[in-house]
Amino acid sequence: MSWITILWPMAASVSLTFALLHLFIWAKGIQPWANLSFTVAAVITGMELMGMRATFAEQMATLMHWVHLPLLVLWMAIVCFIRCYFDADRP
Questions:
Q1: Cα atoms found within 13 Å of the Cα of residue 50, Cβ hemisphere only
Q2: Which of 22, 53, 62, 75 could cross-link with 35 by S-S, CB 3.0 to 4.6 Å?
Q3: Is the sign of the CA dihedral 27, 28, 34, 35 positive or negative?
Q4: Contact call for residues 84 and 37 (beta carbons, < 8 A)
Q5: What are phi and psi of 89, to 5 degrees?
Q6: What is the distance between the alpha carbons of residues 47 and 4, in angstroms, rounded to a whole number?
Q7: Position 58 pLDDT exceeds 80
Q8: Where along the chain do its domains lie?
């Protein structure tokens, strides 16, 4: 077993734990948009794990074709988090 096989699910579980924590904070209403956007940004780590598990070139090509949508959501979530968390009023 490689060290990536052990380390990557551990990092993904930490990321998903933070996502769950911020989802609960979002539900309580404490800086709601900032915490929801952080939750969305943390959930995207599953796409990277799927890319590491691809065994055929066709699987990786399909994944690379569809990875643009989650990356767009990730960037929008990061921008929304920064804008909401730091109260940046002007876009």
A1: 15
A2: 22
A3: negative
A4: yes
A5: -75, -35
A6: 15
A7: yes
A8: 3-85
